[in-house]
Amino acid sequence: MKKVYARNKQYTGISAGVSFVDGVGETDNKNVLEWFEDHGYEVEESIPDKKPVTKAEK
Q1: pTM (whole model) above 0.90
Q2: Mean pLDDT throughout 40-53?
Q3: Strands (E), the chain
Q4: Dihedral of the alpha carbons of 47, 29, 15, 45, in degrees to the nearest 10
C-alpha cells in the first residue's frame, strides 16, 4: 500500500475511490496512484507492518 497525501491536510472524505482521513489515504491501485500524482498529490510508500517472530523462526 502507498500513502496519498491531500493538499488539504484536514480533508476527510473519498476522492477517486480512496478514503481520506485528515488528509491521508491509502491505495495500491497503480492507475489511481498515477492520477493522484498527476494532480499534485504526494504519494509515498507505506511502511509494511512487522510480522511477529514465531518460535519456529527463532
Answers
A1: no
A2: 75
A3: 2-5, 13-15, 18-21, 24-27, 42-45
A4: 20
